[in-house]
Design brief:
By secondary structure, the chain is of the alpha/beta class. It is 37% helix and 18% strand. The mean pLDDT is 92.
Length: 314
């Protein structure tokens, strides 16, 4: 038995630096091409093949181990109860700030996990689809708090995940258009009992609103928090806004088309306004406090690269 160093502070997490983490998958082949990585990369992210190989390939391997072990436990439980196997999808939650790169990570994990033999069918659902429609947010006076916990239809998200974890053959989630900045009526994301469901969103690790309520994360089998210094995230947010101004915002159908003609200085001032008035308060008040609820924390440096990994001890 390894002795515990009494000089080190006790923690429920193992802290693993980048080099040690990378060695955990050194024997694995890189399953994605550079073109595939570029297609998965979000605007402003600096995801490279090295980052995929050294950080996310080991993470996908770990998740595959967890998913396989959970399925084995489900089968053993069904056998003990002398009933047919009723194992449900393995659910992974991915949380973190706006512009921290969690959407890219969720897409990447979907691709990597689907390459493992035990989890060939992986679906991704974002909690954007569970935002109230803009008309309802306007009615409630919440348009300026879009992304805060109260702007989501928490009951609908909880019902969706409850159906997934109950083994329903087909579950539907609302569809959100970033171009329209709104829910698309009658459009849905369909989940048909895959091996893994990844749920990505700002507030997926929020505690329940009342002591007797169920938390969204109670329905997760594994959860990931993407962490970075708020000053770095602010810069990434502004950089992304500037890039969107030249790209998606220039589309006449975009909700944000009004920003397409801003000068650089005007665009920076606008982005900082949104950051300081909405995104930073939400990060500090609601998102960052949930970090300790995650199974695994990815700590990013100022260059967007993961520097350390915290993994909760079993």
């Amino acid at each position: 038995m390894t002795a515990v160093d009494p000089t080190l502070p006790l923690s429920p997490y193992r802290e693993i630096d980048r080099a040690d983490w990378a060695r955990l998958a050194a024997d694995l082949d890189q399953p994605l091409s550079e073109t595939e990585v570029v297609e998965l990369r979000g605007l402003g992210d600096r995801l490279s093949l090295d980052e995929v190989r050294e950080v996310y390939l080991p993470l996908s391997r770990l998740l595959s181990h967890y998913a396989t072990a959970t399925k084995r436990l489900g089968v053993a439980t069904s056998q003990f109860l002398q009933e047919a196997d009723s194992t449900t999808p393995f659910v992974v939650g991915v949380a973190g700030s706006v512009a921290v790169g969690k959407s890219t990570i969720a897409r990447l994990l979907r691709e990597l996990m689907s390459r493992w033999p035990g989890t060939p069918r992986v679906e991704l659902v974002t909690t954007d689809g569970f935002l109230y429609p803009n008309a309802e947010l306007e009615r409630r006076g919440l348009m300026d708090r879009k992304g805060f916990p109260e702007s989501y239809d928490r009951r609908a998200l909880l019902e969706f995940l409850t159906e997934v974890k109950s083994g329903a053959p087909e579950v539907r989630a609302p569809f959100y258009s970033h171009m329209r900045y709104d829910i698309v009526p009658d459009a849905t994301v369909v989940v048909r009992r895959p091996d893994v469901v990844i749920v990505e969103g700002l507030n997926v690790l929020q505690p329940p609103p009342a002591p007797n309520d169920v938390a969204i994360s109670d329905l997760f089998d594994f959860s990931i928090y993407v962490d970075a210094d708020p000053a770095d995230v602010e810069k990434w947010y502004v950089d992304r806004f500037l890039a969107l101004r030249k790209g998606a915002f220039s589309n006449s159908s975009s909700y944000f088309n009004v920003f397409a003609q801003l000068t650089d200085d005007e665009a920076i001032a606008t982005a900082l306004g949104y950051w300081n008035e909405i995104n930073m308060p939400n990060l500090v008040e609601n998102v960052m406090p949930t970090k300790h609820r995650a199974t695994l924390v990815l700590n990013k440096g100022s260059d967007h690269a993961v520097e350390t990994v915290l993994l909760r001890k079993l």
